[in-house]
Design a protein that fits this description.
- The chain contains no helices and 11 strands.
- The protein is an all-beta fold.
- Strands 2, 4, 5, 6, 9, 10 and 11 form a 7-stranded mixed beta sheet that branches. A 4-stranded antiparallel beta sheet has the order 1-3-8-7, with no helix packed on it.
- A hairpin with a 6-residue loop joins strand 4 and strand 5.
């Protein structure tokens, strides 16, 4: 079983950048596919980005493609989300998640472990 803790959220202005990190403990980190999701007030949790176990494969939501980059460091047991050119519509609680599946998945239901989230607020 893996525990996940997100950090790096905050209040920024539109056009700014922010880097989220997720630290994992317990389990064998390199055996988990990792993903970032977000949930805005009154909306369902939605997929943002995912990365394969070794980092060779990634997937992004269309809304963040070209602006966000997911990466991982298996030695440090961390996964990061670099967010550039932030927009007010990126405002949400961002969650890190881990899946035991061997392929990249975008469905929240296919992730086994979740962090508690970190708030990102983008002002216009």
């Amino acid at each position: 079983q893996v525990q996940l803790v997100e950090s790096g959220g905050g209040l920024v202005q539109a056009g700014d950048s922010l880097r989220l990190s997720c630290a994992a403990s317990g389990g064998t980190f390199s055996t988990y596919g990792m993903g970032w999701f977000r949930q805005a007030p009154g909306k369902d949790r939605e997929f943002v980005a995912a990365i394969s176990r070794r980092g060779g494969g990634t997937s992004y939501a269309d809304s963040v493609k070209g602006r966000f980059t997911i990466s991982r460091d298996n030695a440090k047991k961390t996964v990061s989300l670099q967010m550039n050119t932030l927009k007010p519509e990126d405002t949400a609680v961002y969650y890190c998640a881990a899946t035991v599946r061997s392929v990249i998945v975008v469905d929240t239901a296919l992730y086994n472990y979740w962090g508690r989230g970190t708030q990102v607020t983008v002002s216009s």
